[in-house]
Amino acid sequence: MTAVDTAPDYLDRPGRPRLAYRHVAGAGPTIVFLPGYMSDMAGGKATALFNWAAAEGRACLLLDYAGCGLSDGLFEEQNLLDWRGDVLDLIDTRAAGPVIIVGSSMGGWLMLLTALALTQRDGPGRVAGLVGIAAAPDFTEWGFSDSEKAIILAKGELREETSYSDQPYVTTRGFFQSGEANRLLTSHIPLTCPVRLLHGQEDGDVPPEISLRLSAALASDDVQVTLVKGGDHRLSRDTDIALLIDTVARLASAN
Asked: Do 39 and 104 meet the contact criterion of CB atoms below 8 Å apart?
């Protein structure tokens, strides 16, 4: 039985959209997977990680952000900090101890923001490790041209065709401004846990340089960047997923 075969659970929240999630109890730090922009927990990497965790008796948590996948809410009404709040709400509900946060693309930005919030609130022991997959912090700064930024601010949204979906990517003014207010790469990032950054050398969406910049900005002395030859943005080939699971397994086994 795979993660997508099982009915999700839901977290009801007063005044905020109901969140869909899947959780399996187990040993060690809870592995929390954060999908990318306009993505959800039914993706191949999330499903493979969940199934591995379940088979190995390790705790794992998948979720859909508000307005995405099976969660309630309107996508266009959410911003970066709203989604960070979604992640924190589910971690507080389903992961009492340490967590290993795995973030894909935009999920890598949320991974960092979530880890900073948890560390500030609960202390450094709350976050046992981070794994970024083509992590994309600050993409509101480097991911749009000046003309695209002008459209977002003037018209309230930018719609772009994408090869990843039959629906256009929508970037709203609210999300863009939230992203610009929470950029991380231009300053010291006070996270000291082990960090592993996986990035495809052929990534046409998030330049591999972003993972190198992130590595330099992190306070941790235990940061490794793995550049995957022939890997694209998704890093979803069988070999890529095997690398992801091996990376997470090594971090989990160290705790």
From this structure: yes
Within 123-194, strands assigned E span: 127-133, 157-160, 169-172
The active-site residue out of 71, 104, 105, 211 is: 105
CATH number of 3-253: 3.40.50.1820
- Report residue 249 as tokens: 């397994």
**Tens of pLDDT along the chain (255 residues)?**
455 556 899 999 999 999 999 999 999 999 999 999 999 999 999 999 999 999 999 999 999 999 999 999 999 999 999 999 999 999 999 998 999 999 999 999 999 999 999 999 999 999 999 999 999 999 999 999 999 999 999 999 999 887 666 778 899 999 999 999 999 999 999 999 999 999 999 999 999 999 999 999 999 999 999 999 999 999 999 999 999 999 999 999 998
Residue 66 and residue 82 in contact, taking contact as beta carbons nearer than 8 Å: yes
Joined tokens for residue 214: 């992130």
Selecting among 138, 203, 205, 240, the annotated active-site residue is 203
| Residues 209, 43: Cα–Cα separation, whole Å | 25
Q: Is 105 a catalytic residue?
A: yes
Q: Which residues contact 154 (CB under 8 A, 6 or more apart)?
A: none
